[in-house]
């Protein structure tokens, strides 16, 4: 059978070299362990053992069997993927519900000219269907066919064009990784210097610890740089496209209508260089007995960049203009003496924004249409000062805008106001028309009504006292 996405009729298999790419890491790990065991480095050396041969063979056979029992078919309206030997798994992915199609190319796959196709449906954070691996040309062609069929276009329609917005230079990426680890390294060096002054044995122990910490830091920096190397952000009618990776590359799409919250992080050591990080929480997978949009996956929209670049991307992810900010009352200085001058928050009919933190300043934007709950929290000290904090929660862990240390009366009124505005924004989003990838709407245009697919449960307003 052919491996390319030519005709829709008939089942197709993955590329014959797929077992090599899927199993090479496990195969190498087993061979390394067997070599160490045979040489006496690990355990006692009594020559080769039976499992030194059986385990690598088992890994290779499992990969071949997985390839043999996996097949896929595109019949025009459904992408079907079947796999499994003892427990058959048959997935039918409706093309109409496809949210994004990502291309992943691990290092060995790139060397062999292969790529993995990951299909994500609406309401899912992970990959609902994976085809690992196809030829690069076949994967790109199949991705274009799926996107065209999703938007009701002719299957021969080429993939929509994209416009590059920004890219991250390697020097800036390396510098941000080094600066992020310099604080930990400084603490370790200081601790080692104290230990070294105790005794000669302490000097040897400190030197050994320093070497190991340097290796760990180098590993962390390498992993960060290699995974974010060549980070490029582009816009297209189907969402924001991100390409990154050094040895292995990833090309993924973030649908704008799935964005639950946007966060700009400004670490203390980055501020002199005017650097920041932009993150988005995207509507994630469905859990058991949970409605759509109750989870989110956090992704980096800009690993490191200038505030101007961050604001440019913010206008794409959240086209609405940010509302003006207001500061908490002066008496809140007693509750937050260090971060008081950085606290600010504001909202309008569609968007809420909050600024918190001193050492790690965070600015969070939450569309009111994505709000899942509004909470008022007031501790004993806050009650004595007559202030309270209002939390505006969206899908995702820690995806919220915090109106910290607001006047107590203002906070209570804010809970009711934000809950009402969120319900109104949710209704307007449900009535808005969906903008397809084949339309002429620009990527930075009005927010499309596709967000109705990720609408969370009704907004809940609550008050609690710590």
Give structural notes.
It is a single chain. The chain is an alpha+beta fold and 466 residues long. The chain has nine helices and 20 strands. It has helices at residues 18-39, 50-69, 107-111, 136-150, 170-196, 200-228, 307-317, 380-385, 408-431, and strands at residues 71-74, 78-83, 89-94, 98-105, 114-121, 129-135, 163-167, 232-236, 239-244, 249-254, 259-267, 276-283, 296-305, 344-347, 351-356, 360-367, 371-378, 387-394, 400-407, 460-465. A seven-stranded antiparallel β-sheet has the order 6-5-4-10-9-8-7, with helices on both faces. Strands 13-12-11-16-15-14 form a six-stranded antiparallel β-sheet. A hairpin with a 7-residue loop joins strand 5 (114-121) and strand 6. Helix 5 (170-196) runs antiparallel to helix 6. Residues 1-8, 285-294 and 434-457 have low confidence and may be disordered.
List keywords for this structure.
about 475 residues; alpha+beta; seven-stranded antiparallel beta sheet; six-stranded antiparallel beta sheet; 9 helices; about 35% helix; about 30% strand
